[in-house]
């Protein structure tokens, strides 16, 4: 309520109780709800279906967009015909690489650093060799080597050693490497780096597993069993990786056409080589195939040792569990026998008259009878327990014989 006078000051009074009630009854504005997700309609066999688009669809669309439209550039290190580094970690467009080196987009995808793959591959094309082995992805030609920078391995020790070794082998020339052409020197450097990396990782895993197995022979502890599980997973992962490389080299050696097409220098000079004349390349690949196979055999032996140790530990734990169960059964039998003896004492503890109350030898007779009854019950159940143990051993031996037969 407001009172106003002409030429006077205006005064505001506090609201009355009725006005406060009106304010309280006034409707409040609720927050605006977000619009529902849009519906999309799809047709399947002539029928129309509507689906609500959720957050999972948005994540799927983002991942698909990344896979459909990958990066158009790759980072490479280029070596020239004399083995010198022409470009160090330079940016190259994929389209220019395909056009310049006569490749298809699917060929370049095999060595694309943005695509994670564990499947090794050696692809032979008309004037180049594409290699994807472990941490190395390279394009080898008769007078050029392109090494693609794999994410996470640019600054690694293995990658640095490979770069220096490749540069040294290419600079030595054909005469300094026993007459090997340019492409075979590059390929041998790649295979050496791959086999060396596998061998070093195998040695580290072998030392750790052998130390752990030796400790488990002395003491079986929970932490050691957890470490054994971790090492077993690492060994299986490494075994899968090494087996893939060995199998790929073995399969590649069966392709005479691809092996004979690896002589890129002769192709550049216009010399045609028959498909059955590739002894030099075959010996090179077979040498590193044997080394890879040896690594696989060592790792398989380690995995077998771990499996045998796990089986032996399970046998020990089963034996301890059986001993605990037998001890519990013995305690139960002893409790039953003592309870049988106390049953006699309980019967005579009732407030009922009998002829033994006034007997001079009644106490000793009842006590002796209760003791004899306890010994009889204990002996009967212990004998049954022994019979059950013999049946268990005989049944296990019979089942083992049946499995062997």
From TrEMBL:
Annotated stretches, region: Disordered: 24-44
GO biological process, one term: mitochondrial magnesium ion transmembrane transport
InterPro entries the record matches: CorA_TM1_TM2, MRS2-like
Alphabetical keyword list: Ion transport, Magnesium, Membrane, Mitochondrion, Mitochondrion inner membrane, Transit peptide, Transmembrane, Transmembrane helix, Transport
Matching Pfam families: MRS2-like
Identification of the protein by name: Magnesium transporter
Subcellular location: Mitochondrion inner membrane
Organism (species): Taphrina deformans (strain PYCC 5710 / ATCC 11124 / CBS 356.35 / IMI 108563 / JCM 9778 / NBRC 8474)
Membrane topology: Multi-pass membrane protein
Gene Ontology MF term list: magnesium ion transmembrane transporter activity
Annotated family: Belongs to the CorA metal ion transporter (MIT) (TC 1.A.35) family.
UniProt GO cellular component terms: mitochondrial inner membrane
Chief location bin: mitochondrion
Transmembrane regions: 331-349, 361-381
SUPFAM superfamilies the UniProt entry points to: Magnesium transport protein CorA, transmembrane region
């Amino acid at each position: 309520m407001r009172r106003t006078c002409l030429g006077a000051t205006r005064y505001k009074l506090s609201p009355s109780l009725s006005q406060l009630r009106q304010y309280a009854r006034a409707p409040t504005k609720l927050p605006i709800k977000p619009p529902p997700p849009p519906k999309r309609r799809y047709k399947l066999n002539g029928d129309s279906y509507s689906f609500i688009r959720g957050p999972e669809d948005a994540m799927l669309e983002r991942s698909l967009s990344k896979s459909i439209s990958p990066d158009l550039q790759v980072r490479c290190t280029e070596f020239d015909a004399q083995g010198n580094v022409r470009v160090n970690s330079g940016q190259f467009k994929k389209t220019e690489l395909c056009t310049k080196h006569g490749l298809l987009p699917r060929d370049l995808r095999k060595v694309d650093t943005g695509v994670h793959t564990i499947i090794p591959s050696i692809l032979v094309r008309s004037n180049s060799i594409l290699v994807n082995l472990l941490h190395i992805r390279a394009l080898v030609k008769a007078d050029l080597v392109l090494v693609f920078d794999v994410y996470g391995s640019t600054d690694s020790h293995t990658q640095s050693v490979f770069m220096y070794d490749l540069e040294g082998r290419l600079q030595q020339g054909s005469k300094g490497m026993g007459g090997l052409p340019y492409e075979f020197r590059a390929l041998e450097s790649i295979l050496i780096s791959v086999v060396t990396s596998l061998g070093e990782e195998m040695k580290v895993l072998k030392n750790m597993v052998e130390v752990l197995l030796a400790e488990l022979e002395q003491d079986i502890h929970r932490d050691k069993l957890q470490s054994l599980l971790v090492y077993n997973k690492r060994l299986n992962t490494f075994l899968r990786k090494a087996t893939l490389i060995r199998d790929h080299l073995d399969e590649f050696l069966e392709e005479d056409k691809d092996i004979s097409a690896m002589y890129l220098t002769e192709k550049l000079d216009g010399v045609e080589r028959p498909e059955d004349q590739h002894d030099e390349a075959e010996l090179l690949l077979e040498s590193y195939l044997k080394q890879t196979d040896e690594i696989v055999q060592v790792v398989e032996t380690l995995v077998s040792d771990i499996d045998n140790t796990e089986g032996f530990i399970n046998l020990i734990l089963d034996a301890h569990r059986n001993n605990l169960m037998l001890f519990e059964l013995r305690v139960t039998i002893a409790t039953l026998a003592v309870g049988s003896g106390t049953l006699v004492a309980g019967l005579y503890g009732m407030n009922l008259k009998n002829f033994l109350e006034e007997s001079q030898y009644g106490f000793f007779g009842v006590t002796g009878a209760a003791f004899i009854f306890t010994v009889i019950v204990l002996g009967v159940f212990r004998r049954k327990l022994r019979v059950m143990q013999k049946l268990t051993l005989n049944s296990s031996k019979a089942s083992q014989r049946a499995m062997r037969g």
